[in-house]
Each structure stands twice: as structure tokens, then as C-alpha cells.
């Protein structure tokens, strides 16, 4: 089962000609999940030629303009295809008002159900086949949340050679063992799943954190992420400004990546004061703490493979 992330925009505050505003699309086989939708989201989706009009759910960190102004266009263009499946939208308080007002003022033609759910407490907000999405609190100038998409553990690998050695005929009995059920083999002997199935294998974890001051609690929330997308808005010399505006420096983001044991951390949501060349300063400072730091750019693609 494939999982991959596409950075649709990596900028913060205002769009630049070469940098759209913050948005990430996560694809898990046929399921599509959008994390924030800043200005320019549709442009990157089009340039990546992604079949995105049947997004399952949108997860909004907060209702500042640079994270939601791309959403009305997403809702309208999604109506250009036939769909009966609802589109779920999650976010902190006021996201429902923003969506409803946009639909009303723009006279949107919508031919599918839109279900908006406001997050008032941390916990699981969405569940699917073999995974769930959890929201957790951040600290910004208005209510803001981070998200993790976590897969459930997968069954261990089935050992067909051992099954044959234990006189278990191919067919339904193999399936029962893989589902965790004990069976009786051809010799009338009970065979337990652990005799032919290895240990459970871990699933994958994707985390999205943006627009927050540094909090030690974030590392615990994103613990063990295969891919952590994390804001790194300022360099060290702007630490006071970052604190005042409740943002993070790239070095603080790296501390979260290090302390959480994340396998990969990609910076996002840069201040427009930094040109693409200047971004290397953010990367260098982060890499002093977390050497594997990656700078995201618009339309960057990340594969998220199983560890095994």
C-alpha cells in the first residue's frame, strides 16, 4: 500500500511568485487527504496532474488566511465530478462559519455532501481502513491544532513453507491463521497463528505541525513519525520575533524532530523575508540539531515507505 506526500505550498503569510502558501496533500492508495489549503493550492495540484477532485477529508490547522484561502476553489472544482461520498472538513472553531459563509457569498454549486466538524478537544477525529487521524493542541495567536495520520499495526508475515510442513492445506485455513485464528490441521492437531505468522509489523505515521511556538509536548505527539512536516519560519536572529508571533525557528523545529525520534523532518511555512537562497540558513541551523532536515519546495514529493 503506497503512501506519499505532496507539498503544494511551502510559504507563510503571503504568496510569492515562486512559493505558494502552506498546503500538503497526502495520498494513501486511493485515499486523499489535504492538510491546510493556502492560496495557490489548486495551481500546484494542477501542475502535479493529481486526480484530487475526490479528496476524502481536509484537515485545517487554524483559520488564518494563509492556510484557508485556497479552500473555496477546492470546494467548487470538486463539484465538477460526480461524487456521492461526503467531503469531511476538520478544524478548530470558526472553520464551519468560514466554509458556510464562503458557500453562501460565492453562491457555490455543490453536488456532494460537505460535513464540517469543529475540533474542541484533542483526540481521534477521523478513522479509515487501517488508520486514524488524531488532532492535538498547538499554541498560536488563535486556536491551532496539529495532526498525525497513523496506521494500525499490520499482521506479521505468513510463512507458507512452515504451514506446509505442519500439514496445513492451502486454502481457507491459511486465511484463518493470517486473521489470527487457530485451526486444526490435516493430522487433527491444533495450530496457533504464531506458529506460522511472524510478529506484527508497524504501520506508518505522518505528522503535520505548523503555526505554533515551541512546545516540548509536540515531540510526544509526533513521536516516531516517518515523515514530520513542521514549520520553521524564522532563523535564530529572529527568535524574539518568532516568540512574539508564536512561531518557531528552524532550530526549534529540529529539536522536536530529534526529541520525537522522527525518521524524516521537512521544514515548511517560511517567512517571505527569506529568498530561496536564504532558506539555506534555516536548513543549516536546523541541521546542527537534526542532520536529516529537508527544505520543502512547492510540488516536492515524498515517498513514505514501510520501515520493513
UniProtKB/TrEMBL annotation:
Keyword Magnesium annotated: no
Q: Which reaction does it catalyse?
A: Endonucleolytic cleavage of RNA, removing extra 3' nucleotides from tRNA precursor, generating 3' termini of tRNAs. A 3'-hydroxy group is left at the tRNA terminus and a 5'-phosphoryl group is left at the trailer molecule
- All copies of the Metallo-beta-lactamase domain together span 20-199
Query: Active site located where?
Result: 66
Q: Which GO terms describe its molecular function?
A: 3'-tRNA processing endoribonuclease activity; zinc ion binding
Cofactor(s) this protein requires: Zn(2+)
Q: Please list the residues that bind Zn(2+) 2.
A: 66-67, 211, 269
- Entry-linked Pfam families: Anti-Pycsar_Apyc1, Lactamase_B_2
Q: So what EC number does this one have?
A: 3.1.26.11
Matches recorded under InterPro entries:
Metallo-B-lactamas, RibonucZ/Hydroxyglut_hydro, RNase_Z/BN
Q: Which residues form a coiled coil?
A: none
Q: Which residues are Zn(2+) 1-binding?
A: 62, 64, 140, 211
What does the note under cofactor report?
Answer: Binds 2 Zn(2+) ions.
Domain of life the protein comes from: Bacteria
The cross-references to HAMAP family, in alphabetical order and at most eight, read:
RNase_Z_BN
Assembly mode:
Homodimer.
Q: What NCBIfam families would the database entry show?
A: PRK00055.1-3, RNase_Z
Give a short account of what the protein does: Zinc phosphodiesterase, which displays some tRNA 3'-processing endonuclease activity. Probably involved in tRNA maturation, by removing a 3'-trailer from precursor tRNA.
Return the protein name.
Answer: Ribonuclease Z
Please name the source species: Treponema rectale
Amino acid at each position: 500500500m503506497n503512501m506519499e506526500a505532496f507539498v503544494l505550498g511551502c510559504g507563510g503569510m503571503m504568496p510569492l511568485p515562486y512559493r505558494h502558501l502552506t498546503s500538503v496533500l497526502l495520498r494513501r492508495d486511493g485515499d486523499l487527504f489535504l492538510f491546510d489549503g493556502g492560496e495557490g493550492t489548486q495551481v500546484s495540484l494542477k501542475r502535479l496532474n493529481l486526480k484530487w477532485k475526490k479528496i476524502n477529508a481536509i484537515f485545517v490547522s487554524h483559520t488564518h488566511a494563509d492556510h484557508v484561502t485556497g479552500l473555496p476553489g477546492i470546494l467548487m472544482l470538486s463539484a465538477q465530478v460526480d461524487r456521492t461520498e461526503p467531503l469531511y472538513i476538520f478544524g478548530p472553531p470558526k472553520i464551519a462559519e468560514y466554509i458556510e459563509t464562503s458557500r453562501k457569498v460565492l453562491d457555490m454549486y455543490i453536488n456532494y455532501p460537505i460535513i464540517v466538524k469543529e475540533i474542541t478537544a484533542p483526540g481521534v477525529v477521523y478513522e479509515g481502513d487501517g488508520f486514524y487521524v488524531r488532532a492535538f493542541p498547538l499554541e498560536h495567536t488563535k486556536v491551532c491544532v496539529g495532526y498525525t495520520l497513523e496506521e494500525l499495526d499490520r499482521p506479521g508475515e505468513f510463512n507458507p513453507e512452515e504451514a506446509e510442513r505442519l500439514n496445513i492445506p492451502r486454502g481457507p485455513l491459511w486465511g484463518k491463521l493470517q486473521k489470527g485464528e487457530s485451526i486444526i490441521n490435516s493430522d487433527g492437531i491444533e495450530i496457533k497463528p504464531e506458529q506460522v505468522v511472524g510478529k506484527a509489523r508497524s504501520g506508518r505515521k505522518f505528522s503535520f505541525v505548523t503555526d505554533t511556538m515551541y512546545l516540548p509536548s509536540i515531540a510526544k505527539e509526533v513521536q516516531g513519525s516517518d515523515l514530520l512536516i513542521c514549520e520553521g519560519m524564522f532563523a535564530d536572529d529572529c527568535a524574539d520575533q518568532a516568540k512574539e508571533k508564536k512561531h518557531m525557528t528552524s532550530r526549534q523545529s529540529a529539536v522536536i524532530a530529534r526529541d520525537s525520534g522522527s525518521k524524516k523532518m521537512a521544514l515548511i511555512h517560511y517567512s517571505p523575508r527569506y529568498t530561496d537562497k536564504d532558506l539555506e540558513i534555516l536548513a543549516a541551523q536546523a541541521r546542527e540539531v537534526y542532520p536529516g532536515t529537508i527544505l520543502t519546495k512547492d510540488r516536492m514529493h515524498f515517498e513514505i515507505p514501510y520501515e520493513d
